[in-house]
Design goal:
Length: about 160
Amino acid sequence: MLCSVRTISALVLGGLVLVAAPIGGAYAQNSAPEQKQPEQKSPEEQAKEEAQRRSVEEYAEAAKLPGNAGLPECVWSGRRITMLLWRDDIDTARRHMELYERFGCPTEHLKIAFRCLVRQGNIDSKSPERLSERVHACWVNPDAAQAPAAAPAAQ
């Protein structure tokens, strides 16, 4: 009787080992880290990331300016004041000037950046250029040459 109990126990144990082996192997395969497919981002997310990257690059570019004109708070407020002046919103620009000056930002740089913007003239409505891009270009390089005007037709 003892022999038959041992035999039955050995058979049951062997059966369990055979049943558990494929399950354990499958478990081991599933527990391995899955390789993730690259996420497909929506166009809105891509545009948002591009805008953030561009903004970081713009501030890094402006940081090279001498003095306080390259400080992020001066760049941010100065560009907004320049755009407000361009749009003839003098009262709002004046209120922003108080903040600009409180940060210790150079008013001279603001003047020459606005002068650069005015010298370039109106933005063509058919042009892909935006006011904010032109203002930033004038902010980081106010001595830039005037935007090239269309050459007159030779007659």
